[in-house]
Design goal:
single chain, six-stranded antiparallel β-sheet, Phosphatase 2c, domain 1, alpha+beta, globular, 7 helices
């Protein structure tokens, strides 16, 4: 996990917290208008939180045993009203923004323009509708970063679908996913979904999530057809994903990106995955992305199948806070487990289930579950025909997050789970 680091001296963008040069007029990452700032923006770095010694007889608040904690999204300062803008992020309620900040463009409303033929007028900015776009993809007039291919991604196979979206607040999509299917040795199908969430306070989080999703998926497609039990295959896939992310920190082409003297963190991400095979549902994770079970019969109870590697979850597990208190704390979403070279150790979590009824498996980042945290809320957000239309279900769930405020990148994979035919047992026995 990340070590305690000194605060960086260089200024950062108040919109996306990317490093800035002191002479910049616009942020090169998100286009924030820096000319309206009267002072250097406040930096919110990733830090390690440990239990401080009690001094002077002061009564300490509840803390965990010494452990490093990393912020997926850096903590945000509360506005002057004392009301956190995340609490206002509900349908029809948009938190106020500084006048100088460009209003975000809803990625769902942006239709990528075709490349103009040679000799025609270049495309214009999707934000101001007047500026020309430079070679790096930024508006020469307002500095707004233009939509990129990764801002919104969708993929659908016969038995699984996934959607990933940049959201309404971030300047890029740092999530990634992989969905696939393989044949087991007995010829039956195994369906796979991997979802990764880049740690925003790390270096190159978008590359970390993409590398992890690809590596985990490839490992599963190699091990499942050989007859490896899905739970063991999931464990091995998480290890492969971790190794892939670790290698980014030692990539010679980016050696300076993880220079301790520059107070940066190694590339990092979380990972969550699910496998549906031979009547079994296997899940695996590191971090705070989640898996939910939503039965087709909505009168039956849904369930969350993963436990977060987060400050809030550890406080609840230690009996120091109840769940409502822990998740109301500003440190709630600080993660205590991730994939990356600066993680203390890798602790993959896996679990195996054997559902007794059909339903859908929802695999998602916190960009969704922030707006549907409880299992019954996720079930309410998922359409009734989710099993028959998994892509539509994923689209609806992403829309639910965007309509709720879209504070983070949001990625959702949906895997229908059908009951095995009568007489067809699991190739792996009862979980």
């Amino acid at each position: 996990m990340s070590q305690m680091r000194q605060l960086p001296a260089e200024p950062t963008c108040p919109g996306c917290e990317e490093p800035l040069e002191r002479a910049d007029l616009f942020c090169g990452a998100c286009g924030y208008d820096l000319s309206a700032l009267s002072q250097a923006p406040v930096d919110h770095p990733t830090v390690a939180i440990t239990v401080p010694p009690t001094a002077g007889g002061a009564e300490p608040g509840p803390e965990l045993p010494p452990a490093a904690i990393r912020y997926d999204d850096p903590p945000r300062a509360a506005p002057a009203s004392g009301i956190d803008d995340f609490e206002l992020a509900a349908p029809g309620l948009v938190p106020p923004r500084p006048e100088a900040e460009p209003q975000p463009v809803d990625p769902r409303s942006v239709v990528p323009e075709p490349t103009p033929p040679s000799g025609t007028v270049a495309k214009v900015c999707v934000a101001c509708r007047t500026g020309r776009i430079d070679e790096d993809g930024y508006c020469e007039n307002c500095g707004h970063a233009q939509p990129r291919e990764r801002d919104h991604m969708e993929q659908e196979l016969d038995a699984v679908a996934a959607v990933s979206d940049r959201g309404l607040r971030h300047h890029r999509n740092e999530d990634s996913f992989a969905v696939s299917a393989a044949a087991l040795p007995d010829g039956s199908p195994a369906v796979v979904a991997i979802v990764c969430d880049g740690v925003s306070s790390a270096t190159r989080p978008d590359e970390a999530s993409a590398a992890a999703a690809t590596a985990a998926n490839e490992a599963l497609l190699e091990s499942l057809p050989r007859g490896t039990h899905p739970q063991q295959a999931m464990h091995e896939a998480i290890v492969a994903a971790a190794e892939s992310v670790n290698s980014l920190a030692t990539d010679p082409a980016h050696a300076m990106d993880h220079d301790p003297n520059r107070h940066t963190n190694a590339p990092a991400c979380t990972l969550v995955g699910a496998i549906v095979a031979s009547g079994l549902l296997v899940v695996g994770w590191v971090g705070d992305s989640r898996v939910y079970w939503v039965p087709d019969d909505r009168t039956a109870p849904p369930a969350r199948l993963t436990e977060d590697d987060s400050w809030a979850a550890q406080m609840v597990a230690a009996g120091l806070m109840n769940e409502a208190e822990a998740y109301a704390d500003e440190r709630a979403h600080a993660i205590t487990g991730w994939l990356g070279a600066d993680a203390y150790e890798l602790e993959p979590h896996t679990a195996s289930f054997k559902p007794d009824r059909p339903g859908v498996v929802v695999v998602c980042t916190d960009g969704l579950w922030n707006y549907a945290e409880a299992a019954h809320e996720m079930a309410q957000a998922a359409p009734a025909d989710a099993a028959a239309r998994p892509l539509h279900c994923a689209q609806v769930l992403v829309g639910h997050a965007l309509d709720g405020g879209g504070h983070d990148n949001v990625t959702v994979a949906v895997l229908p789970f059908a009951m095995p035919e009568q007489g067809a047992g699991s190739a792996y026995g009862t979980a």
